[in-house]
Specification:
- This protein is an alpha+beta fold.
- The protein has one domain: endopeptidase domain like (from Nostoc punctiforme) (endopeptidase fold (from Nostoc punctiforme)), CATH 3.90.1720.
- It has 5 helices and 10 strands.
- The strands form 3 sheets. Strands 5-10-6-7-8-9 form a 6-stranded antiparallel sheet. The protein has a two-stranded parallel sheet with strand order 1-2.
- The radius of gyration is 14 Å and the shape is globular.
């Protein structure tokens, strides 16, 4: 039962990602930035964010989860946790709105993460050097991506 996705968290993530398309469109990409204050109305206080900071904010989490789950929310962190100990994330076979699509760091290049908005055809919202946008996720699939969800009960009662 622990690996069942927490659908309430993902519904809220999808809602926040769509909201950000309007309210945070001016975000600029900077690696390691954003996603520290999930209570804020946008993913970043200084206008800079990266893809995993955006994903953490959408999930209602601070990207610094080292004390609670022993991980930093990054594309590599989500991948490692979801394919390993599954403290916070679990791999899901089929994408659904609000889950994450992720590929890890590879060959000296940064990985990437986005929020799935539609499963068929696969589309989502992400933040990259091109800014915050909604688009098809075909480029993820070509790189061997996987889908991850927050585990049911991982955040405890009363958390977003």
């Amino acid at each position: 039962m622990l690996d069942v996705p927490d659908r309430k968290v993902h519904a809220r993530a999808l809602e926040r990602a769509r909201m950000a398309l309007g309210s945070a469109r001016g975000l600029r990409y900077r690696l390691g930035r954003g996603g520290f204050h999930p209570e804020d109305p946008t993913p970043s206080r200084d206008g800079f964010c990266d893809c995993s900071g955006f994903a953490a904010w959408c999930l209602g989490l601070s990207r610094d989860q080292r004390k609670s789950f022993g991980l930093w929310i990054s594309s590599e962190g989500v991948w490692a946790d979801g394919t390993g100990p599954r403290r916070l994330f679990t791999s899901v076979a089929q994408p659904f709105p609000g889950c994450l699509v992720v590929y890890p760091d590879r060959d000296g290049r940064q990985g990437h993460v986005g929020i799935v908005t539609r499963a068929i055809p696969l589309e989502g919202i992400d933040l990259s050097t091109g800014g915050l946008r909604q688009r098809p996720f075909g480029f993820f699939l070509a790189k061997g991506s996987r889908f991850f969800a927050v585990r049911q009960g991982a955040l405890g009662e009363g958390r977003p």
